[in-house]
Amino acid sequence: MLKKLSELLDWFSEFLAYRKGLLPITGILLVAANYVLRLFAATSFLATTDLFLHLGVVVALLGVLLAWAL
Hints:
4 helices, mainly alpha, elongated, about 0% strand
């Protein structure tokens, strides 16, 4: 199990090493999707909890930190 996790992390780090902007762009798209949800479906669960907004900010920050480290 530990070997599989190690292989997965190796693959993921090599994948992101060549695509440094993928996670920040994904985070920005999640924040934009939250904005669109707030405009058109203001009473839905995703819009009232701002789930995509919070998830997008976390993903973008992690993407910036990973890009800096890789």
